[in-house]
Specification:
Elements lengths: L25 E6 L12 E3 L8 E4 L7 E4 L2 E8 L6 E4 L1 E3 L4 E4 L1 E8 L6 E8 L14 E8 L6 E9 L5 E5 L4 E2 L10 E8 L3 E6 L2 E7 L18 E8 L21 E12 L5 E4 L6
Parallel strand pairs: 3-6
Antiparallel strand pairs: 1-19, 2-7, 4-5, 5-6, 5-19, 7-18, 8-20, 9-15, 9-19, 10-11, 10-18, 11-12, 12-13, 12-14, 15-16, 16-17
Length: 287
């Protein structure tokens, strides 16, 4: 199967779900998920989000929860017949496999929106085997989007994690809300993230809807330097349950929740402008 031609360029709503790369970028990394399992050169499984008394985490030993099938990475959150009542996948990450600084990152995916759903496409700057030391004052988290149990809305955020669990964050004045969500859980859309030395921007289907100015310190803590540290990618298909340590009001799974919650990723691709930013892999770690 040719890269980028695995599925139709139109989703079930007839909307374009093809790549929307801004001018001047060249592809430097990616995964089309054409194999029979996760490519160990690109991905590792971690507990970036934890289990609870009513939610277990599984990896490749549970293909009904995590698999690479028909040219897609398939992450499913399921309702079990016994205890615990729910199972979802471990975090799928590029930690110690690929970190990057600056570029345009884009994936094509079917995302589970709806009651109890908490899928996410996010990144962290953490010390690792392949990346240079990070900024020491705080650790960065960039949420390209999270669903937060919404039926139709993708929500971006930036976070600073200081020592002692001190935490600040900056939401975007504009979230992305789909105008027609009747079949959203079954549709593929493209979700993009553009990162330059000046700003971070989020896209859906080629529309830039949110931009963060990296010269504006959102918590007045003295610096935005951490937002220039290399980042690694994380996928989660988490859910809000009765034992979730944090959940927005009214977000918990209930009789309205549709299972399995399917987060299926067709491809992910990273593009960079020549001479701008860095790419760190196991083959080419920081020196």
């Amino acid at each position: 199967m040719a890269a980028g031609c695995k599925l139709a360029d139109l989703n079930s709503a007839g909307q374009s779900a093809k790549s929307n790369v801004p001018a001047g970028y060249e592809k430097v990394w990616g995964d089309e998920f054409d194999g029979a399992s996760l490519d160990a050169r690109n991905w590792t499984l971690r507990r970036d989000m934890g289990p609870t008394a009513d939610l277990s985490l599984a990896g490749a030993e549970r293909p009904d929860v995590l698999s690479v099938t028909d040219g897609q990475l398939r992450l499913n959150a399921i309702r079990n017949g016994g205890e615990p009542p729910y199972t979802t996948c471990l975090s799928v990450t590029t930690c110690d496999k690929m970190h990057f600084q600056y570029g345009y990152l884009e994936m094509r995916a079917k995302v589970p929106y709806g009651q109890g759903a908490w899928p996410s496409f996010w990144m962290k700057a953490m010390p690792g085997k392949i990346s240079p030391p990070r900024f020491k004052d705080y650790m960065v988290e960039v949420d390209i989007f999270e669903v937060f149990s919404n039926p139709d809305t993708a929500v971006p955020n930036l976070h600073k994690w200081y020592g002692g669990k001190k935490h600040t964050q900056s939401g975007c004045p504009r979230r992305y809300t789909f105008t027609d969500a009747a079949n959203l859980r079954g549709e593929y859309h493209t979700y993009g993230f553009e990162w330059t030395p000046q700003e971070m921007s989020m896209y859906v289907d080629g529309e830039k809807y949110c931009t963060y100015d990296l010269s504006a310190d959102f918590d007045r803590g003295g610096s935005m330097q951490g937002f220039h540290d290399p980042l690694y990618i994380i996928f989660n298909n988490h859910i809000f349950t009765g034992h979730s340590p944090w959940k927005p009001k009214g977000s918990e799974v209930d009789e309205r929740s549709v299972f399995p919650m399917q987060y299926w990723i067709d491809w992910i691709r990273l593009y960079q402008k020549p001479g701008v930013g860095k790419l760190y892999t196991e083959e080419h770690p920081a020196r």
